[in-house]
Structures are given as C-alpha cells and as structure tokens.
Design a protein that fits this description.
328 residues; disordered N terminus; D-Maltodextrin-Binding Protein, domain 2; 2 domains; disordered C terminus; 12 helices; globular; alpha/beta; two-stranded antiparallel sheet
Amino acid sequence: MPIQRRKLLAIVGGGTAAGLAGCSGILGDEGSNGNKTGSGSSGSSAEIQSEELVLTTTTSTYDTGLLDEINAGFKNRFGTRVKAIAQGTGQALQTARNGDADVIMVHSRSQEDEFLNQGHGINRRDLMFNDFVIVGPPDDPAGIKGMKDATKAFATIAKSQETFASRGDDSGTHSAELEIWAKSGIKPGGKWYLETGQGMGETLNQASQQGAYTLSDRGTFISQQNQLELEILIQGPIKGGPKILENPYGIIAANPAVHKNSNYDLAMAYIGFVTGQEGQKIIKNYKLNGKQLFFPQALSKDPNYQQYVPAGWQPSGDAGKTNDTTDT
C-alpha cells in the first residue's frame, strides 16, 4: 500500500538518520527547523527557507557521506533542509511513483527511462559517475583476480561454486549485476548464491564475514574497506577495467502534473544546485582516505542530449534540431 505523503513526512520528522550504513530505507535529515509547505512557487528566500525538500536516493550516496556534503551546501545556499530517504534504486523510484518525493537521485538508466516514460519524472540530468568493482576474499579461491572480462569472472565464480553475495534488492547495483550474469549466459542460483536483500554496506559486511565475492560501487567499498576482509579483484573503467562496470548517476524531478503535492520549484532549485558549478565542485572534491569517490558529469562543453530524455527517444520534426541545455 502506498505511503501517504503527509504521513511519510510525519514518520521522518524526527530528523535522525536511522539504521546501519547500507540498510535499505535509511531516513536522513539535513537542516534546521522548518516544515514543508507543499507545492507552489518559492517566490522569495524566506518562502524557500520555510519549505522542506524530500529526496529519495540510493544507499551509495548515503553510505559514502557524499549526500551530507551536498545537502549541507544546498542548505547553506538556500536555507532549506533536505529530507533524504536512502533506498535501492528500484525502491527509490517506487517511493517517487507513490508521490512521496520531490526529487530522485539514482543510478540505473534503464529504470530511470522507464520512470520517465511512465510520466512520473521530468527534467532528468546527468549528475556524476563512478564505477563498479568486483571484490572478494584476498586469497581469491575462484582465481578471478586481474581478469579483464567481468562476464568471464562471474562465470568463473559460478563454476567454482564459491559464494557470491547479491544485493537482491532491485537496486542499481543489483540491476548491473543481473546484466553481467545475463551476458555471461548464467542464471545464478543455489547454495553458493546468497541474496542479502540489503543495501551495499550490509552486503559488503556479509560478503566479508562469509568470504564471498560481490559487486560493489567503488565509492561504498572505499568508504568501508578498512572494516572489510575484502579487496578489489576486478577493476572498473575508472582504473582501466571493462565498460560494463560503468556506474552513471542521474537526478530527476517528480512530475508535478502527475504528483500534485510535489514541490517542483524546490526540486528544480536542488537540481540546479547539484548540477551547477558549486554542486559539481562538492562532488569533485569529496574524498575518503585521499581517494575521490565520485566524478562530476553535469557540466560539459559538448553536452549529450540523451542526458535529458529516455534512451532511444527521438523528437519529431524540427524539434530535433535544437539542443537547448540551459533550461532548468
């Protein structure tokens, strides 16, 4: 049953981040006192400051601490607090479909395109990227270390029957994992295939405890690697690994024509901030243990039109000849 938006805000109104890092459905609060006033024009700084933005996003942005940095910067600029709901991408998009979010920050383009095509979201922007890595126990019992082909590495793990920990939660990471299995020609299952149903942080913890392999976004792994008995065995494209391990993030406003209670003005202020120079600088400069976790992607001298529309969508007539990248 969909959560009523007003009830959701009451539930998360306590303002305390709940749960362990990596858990699905973390509620985070950034900012000081002030209640959301619903949709409508922000009008003035005073009106903006009295409102609250509801953001649904992935556990990776929360687990790494990047979200705190972005939301603090947004609050400093607009005086507005952000209520963040951290879930797997599939759950985050469903929360938005239920009308319980103003803006969505996720990392599964196929699921984002479906969301846009259904009319639930508009004004998508490329935001940032990192990559996926295949991690496992240091002794690497399946013998995959250094392979250049992620599908071959997955097939080798399956053949060896060594434990593989899958998020199994319809997240962006889970979708990427299933794509690799599909291209390897293997349908995973059996005692060696563990579906945690948890976020990335908890899945990494379980993989570490059980000496298992897993697919992780690089940022979450870096943020937790000091507590794990795991190491990167297959690098993603940031370190010269296979393209299939790319991990781009997008940001989307809830469509106010469909979700009447969404705060479109505030959502677009947030999107403008995080894809603008200040927000992109925060992303670029955010590091843990001296390592950059995410790479900004919104600013480009030659922007890709597909960052705004679902893949494969083509305008009709002369509309396709324009490429206005300044509209927010």
